[in-house]
Automatic annotation (TrEMBL):
Keywords: Membrane, Transmembrane, Transmembrane helix. It comes from Thiohalocapsa halophila. The keyword Transmembrane helix applies. The chain crosses the membrane at residues 6-24, 31-53. This is DUF805 domain-containing protein.
Length: 67
């Protein structure tokens, strides 16, 4: 059963990386940036990247149109 365990571990790893990517989809790097950083490093480090990232600037529709 060691092959089964390896498959389960890889599935959990990829699911955690995808969760981090979903959490970071509205951040600076977007979904794909956080997904690849989580896969390349670890999902824990990817989560720290999400926490450290600045959210994108908020767009103010009324003030931009008035100028």
């Amino acid at each position: 059963m060691p092959i089964f365990h390896a498959v389960v571990i890889v599935a959990i790893y990829l699911a955690a990386a995808m969760l981090v990517a979903v959490l970071g989809r509205r951040r600076k790097w977007g979904y794909w940036g956080y997904l690849w950083s989580s896969i390349l490093f670890t999902p824990l480090l990817g989560f720290l990247f999400v926490l450290a990232a600045d959210p994108p600037p908020k767009q103010q529709r009324g003030k931009e149109q008035a100028r």
